[in-house]
């Protein structure tokens, strides 16, 4: 009989449950020794978030918080953490695949405390925000990402290219997806790269443009691994891209709209989000390159002829909104945007107050986009960095 | 050398460009005969949208509008239509794969009219809304869906199951996707079903729940084709589901949250959207069944024991919002919800003002959801219909 679940998953379960168990056993040891149970967890505050310039990564600093069960201010959070850890542990040993949403439901209940004169009622948590935050605590405390604990999530990332991977019990040929694509699994660390015949990775923000490039045969022509994040990238897509870069040494190019939202998507791939720097160490791709669409592609500058004519600019350009300008000013101050190239890019934007969608480039002809604009920029190293 | 594009696409191009050409040649014939050029296009108004009870479909009635070039009120729309048709035709014969967004850009420009004393300037269109509406006109005028004209779009639908399909130049085994899934192409009419070993289709609204069921081996255990629409279904997912039902005679079950938004998703699969009834004839699956989560699953009724205990209801139920109640009242009046089952369902909702997410069911244990709740309901025919 065919097994219902994969061997890879069973091994991952064993490993994660062991680590989770060992970590929390230390808390129990404290109790056994008559000490107050305390968890020392790396602080996830902004002040403990450091941009490591050498590695090009956001990382957590050395500051730790001590979550003490006997401290009234900490007791609830302490209990929430152990409750969630026990739910995740149960899920691991019982072959479950929870999501963060159902972990919220699994733990949600009221605790009734009968006092001498009064009955107290307290909810374990009221909103998913609370239980999510506890999950992150467990991630930094155990140094296991949620994916390592087989917590699943929705996944938008897709990939095609001349490459075979092993996922679950199958070997999948990503060059044989027809007009469709391979939807990346939520636990990309469990993927094995079996056979790769590619020279670079192109990540496209927009799914529709991914479809166009795929269908036109772009990846076949240029030996590319073609990926879309379908908007803001999720964790699995980021981790998958990082692994292609780190393990296979493939350069990674990011193609987004020419606007601050596109820059932010690039930034999430390259650095991660400031709020979740703990994950950036494994999810970010510090040497991902911003291929375009850049402001100099649109307007040119003293060293470069623009890709658009005056008339095309008139037809294609969208006026920037207040929110775009605000976001651009924020991004301008991020450490990793403080390069000559990016400051130039952002200044052109703030000067012209103009943005452009990739679709405008496709409308000049898909052949222009796929077989001229993108390869020309890659060949000449025309990135913003 | 490997071809960059597929043979299937080249054949589809030939067919669509021929039909497009023939349709618009008739307009030119009118001109040649000295007649005013007129397009007769089925009306897409609400009054010309009919619920065909026998077929269970929304269809366009017999009313047509006459778009006359020599009528001042119609001239702009007439020109927009011919402009768009020529852009789509060019794309077809030039091996392009446009999206509706880049079709908007391709046609966007200003037409300058030099009068004796004054120069007039008129934009072909200002917003995508306008060009999209023209595309729909061309669809109903030519009886070609945009997909037939190789207009691509973003696509969210995923599928796994014991089934082989031919897409493009490849044969793809949907039972060998590992932990990932097959992302459906934007032109699902070009897919061939090669080999199918399945008994039913389960469509899950939420991608995360799809991941859970997939990973737990649900489709393997029950010979299901497992699909997610990842929220509101797009056209390709709807067409793919319809084809599975119509051509392979597989029953289709829809699993959504227990709320009016979930019912609406079911309604889009089953009937299509009221605004776009012209497409429903090919995209809707009139005999799709609403599997759950139903209000009677939550609360039970005189004939049925609920799946949730009193305490589970307390922990899982979400209070309905004003907007939910409003939407429920709208849905209650749709013709295809005027059945005993649906009116009962909607009345319980309006009475309890409560909704529930599928994740709450998963939190009772994925095994409960995958190996008890879903199969039990299918086996006993416990649908809302």
From TrEMBL, chains A, B:
Alphabetized UniProt keyword annotations: ATP-binding, DNA-binding, Isomerase, Magnesium, Metal-binding, Nucleotide-binding, Topoisomerase
Domain Topoisomerase 6 subunit A/Spo11 TOPRIM: 200-378
Principal EC category: isomerase
Cofactor field: Mg(2+)
InterPro entries in the record: Spo11/TopoVI_A (IPR002815), Spo11/TopoVI_A_N (IPR013049), Spo11/TopoVI_A_sf (IPR036078), Topo_VI_alpha (IPR049333), TopoVI_A (IPR004085), TOPRIM_Topo6A/Spo11 (IPR034136), WH-like_DNA-bd_sf (IPR036388)
Any one GO cellular component localisation term in the record: chromosome
Example of a GO MF term: DNA topoisomerase type II (double strand cut, ATP-hydrolyzing) activity
PROSITE patterns, per the entry: TOPO_IIB
Keyword set includes DNA-binding: yes
Residues annotated as the enzyme's active site: 105
The keyword Magnesium is assigned to this record: yes
Residues the record lists as binding Mg(2+): 205, 257
E.C. number: 5.6.2.2
Function field: Relaxes both positive and negative superturns and exhibits a strong decatenase activity.
Entry-linked HAMAP family: Top6A
Protein name stated in the entry: Type 2 DNA topoisomerase 6 subunit A
């Amino acid at each position: 009989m065919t097994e219902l679940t994969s061997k890879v998953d069973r091994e991952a379960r064993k490993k994660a449950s062991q680590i989770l168990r060992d970590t929390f056993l230390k808390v129990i040891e404290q109790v056994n020794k008559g000490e107050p149970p305390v968890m020392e967890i790396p602080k996830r505050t902004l002040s403990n978030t450091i941009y490591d310039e050498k590695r090009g990564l956001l990382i957590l600093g050395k500051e730790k918080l001590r979550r003490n069960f006997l401290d009234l201010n900490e007791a609830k959070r302490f209990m929430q953490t152990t409750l969630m850890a026990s739910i995740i542990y149960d899920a691991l040993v019982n072959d479950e695949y929870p999501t963060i949403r159902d972990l919220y439901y699994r733990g949600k209940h009221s605790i009734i405390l009968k006092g001498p004169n009064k009955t107290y009622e307290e909810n374990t948590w009221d909103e998913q925000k609370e239980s999510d935050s506890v999950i992150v605590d467990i991630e930094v405390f155990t140094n296991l990402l949620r994916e390592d604990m087989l917590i699943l999530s929705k996944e938008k990332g897709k990939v095609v290219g001349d490459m075979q991977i092993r996922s679950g019990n199958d070997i999948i040929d990503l060059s044989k997806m027809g007009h469709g694509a391979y939807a990346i699994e939520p636990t990309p660390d469990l993927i094995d790269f079996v056979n790769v015949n590619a020279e670079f990775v192109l990540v496209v923000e927009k799914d529709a443009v991914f479809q166009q490039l795929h269908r036109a045969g772009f990846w076949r022509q240029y030996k590319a691994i073609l990926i879309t994040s379908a908007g803001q990238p999720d964790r699995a897509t980021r981790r998958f891209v990082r692994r292609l870069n780190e393990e296979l040494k493939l350069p990674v190019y990011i193609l987004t709209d020419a606007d601050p939202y596109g820059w932010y998507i690039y930034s999430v791939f390259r650095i991660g989000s400031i709020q979740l720097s703990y994950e950036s160490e494994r999810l970010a791709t510090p040497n991902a390159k911003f291929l375009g669409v850049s402001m100099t592609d649109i307007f040119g500058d003293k060293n470069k002829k623009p890709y658009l004519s005056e008339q095309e600019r008139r037809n294609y350009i969208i006026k920037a909104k207040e929110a775009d300008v605000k976001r651009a000013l924020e991004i301008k101050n991020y450490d990793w945007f403080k390069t000559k190239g990016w400051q130039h890019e952002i200044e052109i934007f703030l000067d012209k107050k103009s943005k452009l969608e990739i679709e405008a480039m496709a409308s000049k002809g898909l052949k222009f986009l796929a077989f001229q604009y993108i390869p020309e920029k890659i060949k000449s190293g025309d990135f913003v960095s």
